[in-house]
Amino acid sequence: MKITPFLWFDNQAEEAVKFYLSVFRKGKAGKPLLDQAGKVIALPFEMQGQKFTALNGGPQFKFNESVSFVVHCKDQKEVDYYWKKLTAGGEESMCGWLKDKYGLSWQIVPDVLLKLMTGPNHAAVMRTFMTMRKFDVATLVKVGSHKVSTKPSRKRVRVTYRGEVIADTRNAVEMREGMGKGKKTVAPVVYYVPRKDVKMDRLERTAHSTHCPFKGDASYFSVAGGPENAVWSYESPFPQAKAIKERLAFYPDKVEISAR
Questions:
Q1: What global pTM score does this model have?
Q2: The domain 64-145 belongs to what CATH superfamily?
Q3: Quick one: pLDDT band at residue 185, thresholds 50, 70, 90?
Q4: Of 116, 169, 201, 226, which one is least surrounded by beta carbons within 10 A?
Q5: DSSP letter (8 states) at residue 180
Q6: By three-state DSSP, how is residue 59 classified?
Q7: What residues does each domain of the chain span?
Q8: Is 64 exposed, middle or buried (0-12, 13-18, 19+ CB in 10 A)?
Q9: How far apart are CA 101 and CA 210, in angstroms?
Q10: Rounded to 5 degrees, what are φ and ψ at 102?
């Protein structure tokens, strides 16, 4: 038993088959089915070992996103190739989806995505690719291999500004971020301080915010009469960063931080 996708075109079946065979080089056209006037009704063809039939069925039905074909790509070069070829005359969509010039939907997907989506950073990978049109393999791999770790600090952490103590605690949480085992750490240790050990009356909330695919949305504070946006906090972090919820961290280039 075999299943053959049957593609309904208005009257462009031959043109479409020629186009697809120019994009997917491992393919061939079969013998067309003709009507009494000698016009093509249907044209079988094969691409990458998969058989199809293109039909000149008239204008009654159109393609839509409820059916799409996934192109599995081994690397960024293949992603770029098929994206460029199939969007020519068509339109880009989100998350690796596109429509070709006949309205047929395709998904151009790197093979590594499945591995990343079953890995420890699957949620961050999904949040990242949901912002993409064409998949950026290097970015997805970077997100997928990123490591975030937290632990209670054994150090006394003091934060001062021009000699004034802004925070003083023995209950900080240390956070380290890097690119996985054997890879260089991408950020120095950051100390997150509980609010009870911070002079909150010396801080002023600002409208500034940033987003981290691993930790969530950060809100910011300035030191009153001092540096702007010197302090940040993840008030509703992602589950993997719950240890730093509502704690405060400080930029070392805007205030003085000692940890001993």
A1: 0.78
A2: 2,3-Dihydroxybiphenyl 1,2-Dioxygenase, domain 1 (3.10.180.10)
A3: low
A4: 201
A5: S
A6: coil
A7: 1-62, 64-145, 147-259
A8: exposed
A9: 38
A10: -100, 0
Q: Are 30 and 43 in contact (CB under 8 A)?
A: yes
CA angle 229, 159, 226 (to 5 degrees): 40
For the chain, report the end-to-end CA distance as a whole number of angstroms: 72
Helices H / strands E in the chain, number of each: 5, 19
Question: Is residue 56 within 8 Å of 40, Cβ to Cβ?
Answer: yes
Cα–Cα nearest to 239, from 211, 210, 209, 214? 214
Note the pLDDT tens digit of each residue in 86-134.
999 999 999 999 999 999 999 999 999 999 999 989 999 999 999 999 9
Residue type, position 14, single letter: E
Fold held by 147-259:
2.170.150
Cβ contact 114:96 at 8 Å: no
Span 36-52, pLDDT tens digits: 999 999 999 999 999 99
Per-residue pLDDT, averaged over 177-191, amounts to 73
Paired tokens of 144? 């997928």
- What CATH number should be reported for the domain whose range is 1-62? 3.10.180.10
**Identical topology for domains 1-62 and 64-145:** yes
Q: Which residue has the tokens 């058989």?
A: 51
CB 219 within 8 A of CB 237: no
